[in-house]
Structure formats: structure tokens, C-alpha cells
Amino acid sequence: MAGPGPVTSVAALVDSIRRSVSAVEDPELPVTIDDLGMIHDIEVEALPDGLRVLVRLRPTFLGCPARFLIEANVRDRVAAFDGVAGMSVTWESAATWRPDDISDAGRAKLTEHGVIVDAPGAEHCCPYCGEHDLQLVSERGVALCRRLAYCPACQSSVDVIGAARGPGTAAVIAPSALWAAVGRRQEPREEETQACPSRQ
Questions:
Q1: Residue 198 in this model has a pLDDT that exceeds 80
Q2: pTM above 0.85, yes or no
Q3: Cα–Cα separations (whole angstroms), residue 123 to 45, 108, 127, 133, 188
Q4: Mean pLDDT over all residues of the chain?
Q5: CA-to-CA distance for 154 and 134, rounded, in angstroms?
Q6: Which has the closest alpha carbon to 7: 66, 53, 72?
Q7: Helix/strand/coil (H, E, C) string of the chain?
Q8: Taking the domain 10-91, which CATH number applies?
Q9: Cα–Cα separations (whole angstroms), residue 133 to 6, 35, 59, 138, 181
């Protein structure tokens, strides 16, 4: 990636780096890390041999495996700037990320892709049909920061992003039994329990 060229001041450099880093996309969601509220702070320190850039990020979930790819993409963006002699990208566990840190633009993009935000004051409606009676069916979603909800109206599964996990936390969307929503699980048919015959 070609560098953006020289900048005229530290303030301008910080602004340019912030805009470049803000454009980094989350590998698991169709939204930037800026819209997700993951950028905690960006600092620039003047050193004798150039500038040192410190980028502090907030993970949506401490154990998220996508952190390494996000960090690598951030480093590539910062390294593209002239005058940068060193950098540090850290994850601030003390600066807790919350679902309400997601921007309005980020929420709109997530909704377009079937993901809703579980945060106080958020409107919890199905992204497919608009029904408000969503039911949380699993604390385990397709990613560590997501859960699985169910819409009885259109019978769709809905991804829910939120940080309400662990001691002292609770999901805003009311939980319910999965099979109470979709019906009692049927017993497997007899032929399904038999071993598949070997190919001749």
C-alpha cells in the first residue's frame, strides 16, 4: 500500500492516521472498527529519529481471535505514513467496550446484514421482518461477541452483538427456551439412526 506522503504537523499526522485506522474493517462483521467503537486513543510522540505512534484499541471480547488480524491491519496502515519511526498497538482491557459504543452508522450496517445490537435503549426488532418479539436462544453465536436470537414471526435466526456476558451481566433481550419457540424436537426417524451402507 502506497504511503499517504508527508504531513505538515503532528496534529495533521494524528488526524491522518486516525482516518486511515478508522477505515480498518472488522474481519467478522461488515463494519469498520471505528463504527464499532474499538478505537480508544491514538497518540504521537516526537523522537530524535522520527515519530512514535501509539494506537490503543478496545476488544469487543477479550478472547476474540480476530484481534490479531485487526492489529496487523492497523500496523500496516500506520507504517504507510512517512516519518513514522516506531509504533505500538495495544489492547486496553481496562477500557471496557460496550455495545452502545457502536455508532448509528455502524448499527445501520449491521442491521443490513442481519445483526442487531443488544444495548440498553436499543430497539430490538428483527432485521428481516421488523417484529419486536425476539427471543434469545443461545449465548453462543457465530463469534465470541455474538449470541443467537430467534424471530417467531418470520422464523429467522438473528445474530445479536453485545457484551452482556459473565458475572453481574444480563442480556437485554429476554431469553426463552429454544424449543418453546420453534416446537418440540422430533425424534429421529428409524432410517436416520441406522449406519450408512458401505459403497459397493
A1: no
A2: no
A3: 42, 12, 11, 11, 38
A4: 79
A5: 10
A6: 53
A7: CCCCECCCCHHHHHHHHHHHHHCCECCCCCCECCCCCCEEEEEEEEECCEEEEEEEECCCCCCCCCHHHHHHHHHHHHHCECCEEEEEEEECCCCCCCHHHCCHHHHHHHHHCCEEECCCCCCCCCCCCCCCCCEEEECCCCCCCEEEEEECCCCEEEEEECCCCCCCCCCCCCECCHHHHHCCCCCCCHHHHCCCCCCC
A8: 3.30.300.130
A9: 53, 27, 29, 16, 11
Side chain identity at residue 134, one-letter code: L
Dist. CA 179–CA 161, nearest whole Å: 22
- Per the structure block, which three cell numbers stand in for 121? 435503549
In this prediction, residues 126-149 reach a mean pLDDT of 85
Please enumerate in sequence order all residues whose Cβ is within 8 A of that of 17, keeping only pairs 6 or more positions apart, or say none: 42, 44, 53, 55, 77, 78, 81
Q: Quick one: average pLDDT of 57-85?
A: 91
Upper half-sphere CA count for residue 196 (Cβ side, 13 Å) = 3
17 Rama class: left (phi>0) / alpha (psi -120 to 50) / beta:
alpha
Please say if the pLDDT value at position 171 is more than 90.
Answer: no
Candidates 167, 129, 172; CA nearest to 147 is 172
Domains of the chain by residue range: 10-91, 99-179
C-alpha cell at 136: 434469545
